TrEMBL record:
Coiled coil: none annotated. Keywords: DNA-binding, Transcription, Transcription regulation. PANTHER family: MANNOSYL-D-GLYCERATE TRANSPORT/METABOLISM SYSTEM REPRESSOR MNGR-RELATED (PTHR44846), MANNOSYL-D-GLYCERATE TRANSPORT_METABOLISM SYSTEM REPRESSOR MNGR-RELATED (PTHR44846:SF1). Gene3D superfamilies: Chorismate lyase-like, Winged helix-like DNA-binding domain superfamily/Winged helix DNA-binding domain. This is GntR family transcriptional regulator. InterPro entries: Bact_HTH_transcr_reg, Chorismate_lyase_/UTRA_dom_sf, Tscrpt_reg_HTH_GntR, UTRA, WH-like_DNA-bd_sf, WH_DNA-bd_sf. PROSITE patterns: HTH_GNTR. Residues 12-79 form the HTH gntR-type domain. Pfam families: GntR (PF00392), UTRA (PF07702).
Amino acid sequence: MAYGELDPSSGVPLYRQIKEILRREVADGTADPGKPMTEVQLLDRFAVSRAPIRQALQELASEGYVYRKQGKGTFPVTGTRVRRPADVQPGALYEYLSESGLHPASRVFGIERVEAPAAIGDRLGLEEGERLLHFTRLISVADEPLLEASVYMRAPEDFAPTAEELEDEGSAFKLLERRFGITLDRAEHEAWATAATADRAATFGVSEGSPLLVIETIFFTTGGRPAGWRSAVHRAEDFKYRFTTSR
């Protein structure tokens, strides 16, 4: 079965197949942002009833892949869109992006062993003089910067990865797990909006003062020991963070 064709025998509902085909076309830039996705055009293309077409477009709109213009139709949304589900494992964002077919690229710089700023040290419960591995990671999707993260990690002194190793692995915590068996159990997040400084405006290709999304995370190992801190800055329109609460 060629990409872009429906498979009625697959057991996957037709609307989901149509949604995935259109989602991939929007994500990889194949879909023309100036050309509407009309029901008539999609009915002719997929040879199905209106119900699966409407369901697919409705879900694509709710997830930010398309938008509707009154009286003109449904249009692809340009730029990168990442929906991070609540069940993405701690330290596995890069892996999630890869598995989602977004082909992320990673650049790591500024690797050093340092004493963390006092505010971070307090949150991690660091001992006096304890030095952490610190670096900055820039993740891009489709050649557009998605996030810039400053990371402080609690790790053995002989854990000294190179930038190339961190870029190839995609996650320093995954590399730490492979080498030392230190695993993450959970993460706590705080998120807020901020305005782009001159430096961040240059990084993300936006105007100074444009809205950005900050997500600050504390990682915990199995057993509850704080393992690290990360502050990730995203272009607000490119990233949707989903979370759940329970009692």
